[in-house]
Structure formats: structure tokens, C-alpha cells
Design brief:
With 131 residues, the chain is of the alpha+beta class. 38% of the residues lie in helices and 21% in strands.
Length: 131
Amino acid sequence: MLTIKKSILVYPVILHPEDEGYSVEIPDIDHGTWTQGEDLKDALLMAQDAIGIMLEDKTEYPKASKLEDIIVKGDEIKTVVYINMEEYRRNNPKTVRKNVTVPEYLVVLGKQQNINFSAVLTEALKNKLEL
């Protein structure tokens, strides 16, 4: 359960209404990250995705500001966005080439049965890591 809690991140965002849609400011990510959305729902989803993109390769995450410390002006809206980084990584996987060593007879048998070695290794790693 601790792993799940650590992977769920909550960050404040500031929605800036535009003539069409919203600009979204995420102050705690990379000294201020911006994105935009066509409407409120799209803006919040884009903020979630921007956080995921910026943090997907990280194991330590920036500390979130307190919502009450966020100052807004006029018609700006402050709210929070949450993201489950484990889920984000599962749904947006990067692939990397990895050389592995396996017994030759398994390679021969696998090729005869048209086995996708990458898929088998990925499945085995997920099982071993209990993902």
C-alpha cells in the first residue's frame, strides 16, 4: 500500500481563462510548467498529462505547494490535479532495447513457435515485480 501512496501525486494548478479554453500553470513542476485545454475538463487532463511527462523518469518528485499558498488574481481558478505515476507509466510505456543472454535451445524452440521474446520478457518482469 505504501508504494501506491507514493505513486499518487497531487499538485496545485492555476487555470487562466482565455478567449477559448484555459491556459494551465503548474507552479511546482520544473520551476513552472504550462499547458492548455479547450475546456475545463481538457485543461485538467492536459495538466495531468504534463505532470506525467515531466516526472515519468523521476523517482523523487517535487514537493507540492499548499493550495492555500497559491495566489490567484481576477478570474483565475486554483485547484488540484492528481496523477498515479505507476498507472501513467503503465499506460504510456517507453520501450528500450535490452540485450539479454538465454540458452540457445530456448531461442531455437521459441523461434520454431513464433514466440515474441520481448513480450515474454515484459510479461515475466511484470510478474516478478508484481505489477
